[in-house]
Amino acid sequence: MAYLLDLFYLLALIVASPWLLFKALTTGKYRRGVGDKFFGLFQPVPDSPCLPVSLSPRLRRAWFHGVSVGEIHLLRQVVARFRQAHADWSCVISTTTDTGYEQARRQFPDLPVIFWPLDFSWAVRRTMNMIDPALVVLAEGELWPNFMHLARKRRLPVAVVNGRMSPRSFRRYHAFRSFLRPIFKHLDLAAVQTDEYAHDFRVMGVRVDRVHVTGSVKYDGVTTERGNPRTRALASLLNVQAADVVWVAGSTQAPEEQIVLDIFRRIRTEQPNLRLFLVPRQKERFEEVAGILRRSGLLFLRRSELKEPVRDRSAVILVDTIGELGALWGLADVAFVGGSLDGKRGGQNMIEPAAYGAAVVFGPHVWNFHDAAARLVESSAALQVTDADGLETVVRRLLDDPRERQRLGAAAQQLVRSQQGATQRTIECLDRLIGASGQSEHAA
């Protein structure tokens, strides 16, 4: 079976290679860690622990994996709580994307950070041999056939934490359930966000007694204090004054930047204190969005070029850096969460701006955060719009009504606080899994 999968992956890689090469040359994506991913190798990284020297042979190892920035971000508190509870374990962090790798290096400076191997049997086997984990923890998902097969052969427990399955993913998985059910069947723990996701994991083959609803870890990892050091530093650099009304459009995708800029241009004459901070989701689009701003005729500044506080506060700020949006939400009076108007991404994390007490707005396409979006809307703690016209109407209303902004923000903060505790419930599930795997032979 592994050889057939390897052949299939190779053929798929050959077919996709022209596109991958084009993207690598034009955007820089897919260049980093190619050998690590394909062969299961590790290159030493300056000023960072590297494998296998930094891992004591006396300690059992937990391998935590997050696909990209969002998953790495939610692993912060899970890994921190795990290390507090299990000082006799060492930890390894892996990720798939370049941005995820950079984020992991920042979040876990004292831990080895590696690239997740492609699902070729040789790459997975070599990575497993080098790490020699006693537990694998996957953030939200990422189940691969060869990986799960080799984990089962090694009697290696595999857990999914903060598990979710978007409607689109579930439909795809369900269409191939006869092939995928054996993969899900051998998952040892699915600590999922909601009852709906629990049902989906069970339908796909995870044993009933291995599925637990723990809530969303993302509620635990957020900051509610606007006076935190990172937000204060950004406020100083961006010269945010008490009279300013700040609109942050974060994690945006095409064509959302153009929509936001058009609305801003129409509103700014009525709102002289309005500031706009624009944060594209992907660093590969920073130049594209800078081009949109140039063509718009609006004055703008790039965050990456700011060395001293902003002087002209009328300028749009293009935040072309990675890892600052979480703190930037703390400056927002109105927060538009992107990836929700384009119909392709399924929304981005609206919990972070809600935790700061911003007036949160997002579009109709939020399947990646369905539960959080539904809770916020049902609690009158956020506003959901259907299209660009609806966004303009809502933003205008919020800018004209500070009391409504404050009401929305207070309700949002209250909801976030009421949903916290998922990290502790997740750790309790992992503790039980570790205890069970240590007391008896892991089920094959």
What labels describe this entry?
single chain, 444 residues, alpha/beta, Rossmann fold, 2 domains, 7-stranded parallel beta sheet, 14 strands, 46% helix, globular, disordered C terminus
Write the topology of this structure:
Elements: H1 2-27, H2 34-39, E1 60-66, H3 69-85, E2 89-95, H4 98-107, E3 113-115, H5 121-131, E4 135-139, H6 145-153, E5 158-163, H7 167-175, H8 177-185, E6 189-192, H9 195-203, E7 211-213, H10 229-237, E8 245-252, H11 256-267, E9 274-280, H12 286-296, E10 300-302, E11 316-318, H13 325-328, E12 334-337, H14 351-355, E13 359-362, H15 370-378, E14 383-384, H16 388-400, H17 402-418, H18 422-439
Parallel strand pairs: 1-2, 1-4, 2-3, 4-5, 5-6, 6-7, 8-9, 8-12, 9-11, 10-11, 12-13, 13-14
